[in-house]
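Example (one chain per record):
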Amino acid sequence: MTATPAKRVEFEDPHVHAGPAEAETMRVRTLTGFWRWALIVMTALTIFLCINQQFGLRFFVGFTPLNTEYFYLLILFMLPFTFLIFPGSEKAPLDRVPWYDVALFVATAASAIHLMFYIRKAAELGWEFGGAPWQLIWSGGAMWAVLMEALRRTGGWSLLLSVFPFTVYPLFAEWRGLGPLRGNQSTFEQATAYHVLSTESLLGIPIQAFADTVIGFLVFGTALMMTGAGKFFINLSFALCGTFRGGAAQVCIFASGMLGMMSGSIVSNVLTAGTMTIPVMKKTGFRASYAGAIEACASTGAVLAPPVMGATAFVIAQFLNVSYAEVAVAAIIPALLYYVGLFMQVDAYAARHGLKGLPREELPSVWETVKEGWYYVFVIVLLVVMLLHFKRESHAPFYATALLLVLNQLFSKDRKWSGKTVLQFLEVNGRTFVELVGILAGCGLLIGAFSMTGVISSLANDLLLIAGSNTLLLLIMCAITSLVLGLGLTTTACYIFLAILVGPALEKMGLNKMAVHMFIFYWGMLSSITPPVAIASFAAAGIAGAPAMKTGWESMWVGSIIYFIPFFFVFNEALVLQGPSPWVPAILLTAAAALGTLCICGGIQGYQVGAGDLRRCGPLEWPVRVALVVGGLLFATPGDEAIGMTDMQVKGLGLAILLPAFLLAFWRARVASAATSRA
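Predicted structure:
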């Protein structure tokens, strides 16, 4: 075989979790010597501790720790490493650990140990509500301080400046200038005790999600990639989609979607799949910025597509007090619509620009690819069955990981694990755990602050008053706020912030809880493809050799359907499979949304399936394209009281706009074809 894209399909993937999960582009320090071994040992203890707690092993000696003790052990094992892995400034050395980071490491560990030893007694005596001894207050104050520094190092100054004022807000909650945020004020001792001893703050929803489910899924995702799943998924994508029109881009979407379903990390997905797909897209005719945009948008689905999704999905489950499986099921149709929209966009772009697929002889065989990696599919099926049928989300990833490793050792030709691989596996997981603990523990204090002051209900009423009880206006306000906050915060932090502040108001409007939280989640993560941040787009631009901002704007254009999907499902909860007997309406609504999306994509790209290239419409091209986008959007949107029309009325209006535009485009295509035939 010649040196064609098929040769490049033989892809040895970098480990997708080789860096932190949410801040892959930050400066990080690679630990060596004693500190590396300490991280490996603490990571192994963290995984064992999680298994012990989830499977009720009682350490094999009959001792069962309280959940709060378990949470503090996880904090003890992982949080101190934040100061070793994430340098404190741009000038901090990367080749060694400075003394002040060691001091922060020791202070964090000492505070965690002290609080852990007293947390059982604190629960018995209710110290989180007052009466805690001064020693615990000092330890709690130190923990509060190091948490804020950990938050700065893992999430950046924007995250710290967004969270820190709210963590100290209970100390000033009765100030008149706070307006709707006025609440019950606490002393420093009361606030500190509540933050570090209650299950509503540091030990609240984010850390609970990490301890209960996130650890297992991160372990599974890392094991999957380190056994060669990246190579398998990309080769399978080339085998299945390579011959399609615009085949390299369709491969990109398919491969990034499958990888993302397992990794749950957007930028890692870009850096893994993009190194393979972007060069092939450029070689087959896609301009560099557009190739980068396609990869960025395809990888953004990593946090949207079940079964693994991202850490935020597990936090949603904790917020709603439902199983993670229910969140994963709710995400199925929105993720499907998103990827269908991407496929349609790329297909229309390829058709308009005459881009062909890859020759079959240059692509890997479907049978050979499946024969080499069949056990990945088997393991994923096991994971899904355990999640959806047996409802064992805390156990499922560990069983799936164990089966994967056994099958890999038995059937893999070149990916069998050695002792060195196990150490690398633990180190990679440890770095991811450390970052997530730093972000999640710090954001937990945000929840605790609002719980302490009791302003959530009054704030929801104030938001309803501002919106005039107009659901659509409140949704638009929420969407804009989510997008703006998402530009400065991680997806998880942005979701937590808005789930506290805006979620209750939307729920009071009568909207479905799951749909509301998914709406907030979707809009919060859009910053990954939306300039000026657009971290996924910038990572893809680096691989493509394209201007970063141009790739960001192209990403918005390619992934534009994702800005509409949240409104689709918040207007009708059947699209997140909620409500009585949701399957039949969900199928009908999904079909309508897919058809509307087809027209939206046709209008955006200037090529409508069934009608052809819209340039044939001459001076009417842009009016036709606008009509297709508007009509498609109306047809795809479920009717609701919020927009003042029933479903039939909205779809009727959409058809009234779509049909003339489509018929005009179809007629112009026939005229152009006849003229070509006569010539």
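Caption: The mean pLDDT is 87.
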